[in-house]
Amino acid sequence: MAAGSAKFKFEFEVEAKKLPFQPSSMLTYLDLAALAKMPSAKVDLGSFKTNCCDRHVYAVIENGKVVRLDSDPCSESNNVTPELGAVLELAFKKMKMDLPGKWKPLPVAKFFAAPQEISVGTITCIQICVWGHCIVCCTTQIPDTPFWCGDRVIIQRDPVRE
User: Fold this and answer.
1) Which of these, 59, 78, 95, lies nearest to 138 by C-alpha position?
2) Using CB atoms within 10 A as the burial measure, which of 61, 83, 115, 145 is most buried?
3) Can you give the pLDDT at residue 40?
4) How far apart are the first and last CA of the chain?
5) Could you tell me the pLDDT band of residue 129, with boundaries at 50, 70 and 90?
6) ∠ CA 72-73-77 to the nearest 5 degrees?
7) How far apart are CA 24 and CA 54, in angstroms?
8) Confidence of residue 155 (pLDDT cuts 50, 70, 90)
9) Among 4-8, 18-22, 63-67, 116-120, the least confident range
C-alpha cells in the first residue's frame, strides 16, 4: 500500500431500521376490469418514505397479471460492495427480517383485491447508520444485485443547544 493510505479492520456499531411503505391513495380508484384487459401497464403502488427522497414502487402488469414489482432508485443509487452487502444481510438477520422472496405472478383482480392493504413483500428499504452518517438501501429483484443504496450521506446531528 502506498504511503499516505491505509486499509484496516475496525469494529463499530451499526443502527438499522426498516422504512415504512405508504400505499398510494389512488389505488382505490383503479378500473381493475380495464387494467386486466391491457396488454401491459405500470401502476404506482406507493412509496417508501426516506429522508432523502421517496422511492416509488410499481406493479408491472402484462396480460392481466402483475408479473413483478419495480422500484425507482434515487438518482444517486448504485449497487453495493460485497462488504456493505454483508452488513445489510446481517442487519436483516438482526432485525429478524427475511430477505424478500421471489415474486410470483398474480391476476390483477387478486393483487388489487384490498388496495389499501397492499404491502410490498419483494422490496424492502432500510436505513443504515454508522457514526451518525446514514444511507438508505433497498432490496431488488434483479439477479446478482440483491441491494442498491444511495450515495447521498445524511448526517444526523444533535440539535444545536444555545
Assistant:
1) 78
2) 61
3) 94
4) 45
5) confident
6) 165
7) 12
8) very low
9) 116-120
Tracing cell 446514514 back to the chain, one arrives at 134
What are the grid coordinates assigned to 30, written together? 383503479
Residues 6+ apart with CB under 8 A from 71: 48, 55, 56, 57, 58, 123, 138, 140
Q: What is the pTM of this model?
A: 0.68
Q: Domain residues of the chain, as ranges?
A: 14-155
Question: What is the 3-state composition of the chain as percent helix, strand, coil, each rounded to the nearest 5?
Answer: 20, 40, 40
Q: For cell 499516505, what's the residue?
A: 4
Percent of the chain with pLDDT over 90: 12
pLDDT at 157: 38
What's the CA gap between 47 and 50, in Å, rounded? 9
- The letter for the amino acid at 72 is D
Exposed / middle / buried, residue 52 (Cβ in 10 Å: 0-12, 13-18, 19+): middle
Residue 131: DSSP 8-state = T
Q: Which of 122, 127, 129, 81 is nearest to 99 (CA)?
A: 122
Element (H, E) at 138: strand 133-142
Q: Which residues contact 116 (CB under 8 A, 6 or more apart)?
A: 23, 27, 28
* 75's grid cell: 438518482
Say if residues 65 and 106 touch (Cβ distance below 8 Å): yes
